[in-house]
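thoughts on these C-alpha cells:
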Amino acid sequence: MLKKEKKEWKDDLLFYSLGILSGLLILLFFSFRRYQYDKKVLENYIFVYQNDERDCKVVGTTNYKVSVSRKYELLNGVKGSVWELKKKNSKKTYTLTTDKDGYFCIIGLPKGEYSIKEVKVPKERTKYEKEINFSLNQKNKVKDIKIHDKYEKIAVVALVTDELGNPIPDREFELYHDTTKVKSTKTNEKGQLGFINIPREEGIYLLDKKTNKKYKVKLEDTLNVYRFFIKESRLHE
C-alpha cells in the first residue's frame, strides 16, 4: 500500500513538474517573440530617424527646420523643383531642389523671418507663383510646406440603383456648370453613366432629370474622378 501511494506521489510530482516546465517554455517563447518585435520596432525607428536626418540639408546646430513636399495629381512627387529660401534682413539665400519624391528639408537655420518661393520646375509642371512668408522661433520650430498641383480635367461618374441595389438603366442625367448645361447622357444596362474631360471648375453638378435632384461636385486637389452612388427612392416611382 505504501509503495502504491509513493508511486502515485511521484506521478503527481512528475505531472506538476511537466506543467510548470510547459508554462515556462510558453512564457520564454512569448518573451522571445516580444523581444524580436521590440527589436524590429527599434530598428525601424532608428532607420526612419537616420533617413530623416540624412535627407535634410544641415546648415547649423539649431533644430529650426523647413521642409517642402511638392506633389501633383495622385500625390506623385515633382522631382527637380527648385526653391529659394531667404532670411529677411539678411543676404543669406538657400537654394534647394526636391528629390524623386518631391521632397527636401533643411535643418539648423537661425530663428527669424523667412520667405520661400519656387523658382524653377520641370517643363511639364506649372510653377507655384506665390511667395510663402513665415517665422521660425521657439513656438514655431518647424515649417512644413505642402504644394499639390490640381488636375486640369476631371471625370464625373455615377451608379444608379433602386432600393434593393438593382441597376436602373436608361435614366437621363445632365451635367451643369453653374446654370449652363454642359452635356447629357443616360445610364447603361448596369445603371452606370460617366462624363469625362470636364474642365476643373467650381460649380459643377449632376442633375437627375426624373427627380430634378442635384448632385454637387466638391473639388479636391488630389482627385480627378468624382463618384456618386445614387439609390432610387420609391417616392419617385
User: Anything to note?
Assistant: The two ends are 91 Å apart (CA to CA).
